Amino acid sequence: MIPASFDYHAPKTLDEALALLARLGDTAKILAGGQSLIPAMRFRLASPEVLVDLNRIHDLAFVEERGDHLAIGALTREYALESTAVVARSYPMLLDAAKVIADPLVRNKATVGGNLAHADPANDHPAVMLAYNAQIVARGPTGSRTIAIDDLFVGLFETSLAPGEILTEIRIPKPVAGSGGAYIKIERKVGDYAVAAVAVQLELAGTIIKSIRIGLTNVSPIPVRAKAAEAALAGQPPTEAILEAAGQAAAAECSPSADLRGQVDYKRDLVRVLIKRTVRRAIERAQGARP
Amino acid sequence: MSQHEITVTINGEQHTRKVEARLLLVHFIREDLSLTGTHVGCDTTSCGACTVSIDGQAVKSCTVFAVQADGATIETVEGLATGGTLHPLQEGFWEKHGLQCGFCTPGMLMSARSLLARNPSPTEDEIRHGISGNLCRCTGYNKIVEAIQYAADKLRDTKGA
Question: pTM value?
Answer without folding.
Answer: 0.96
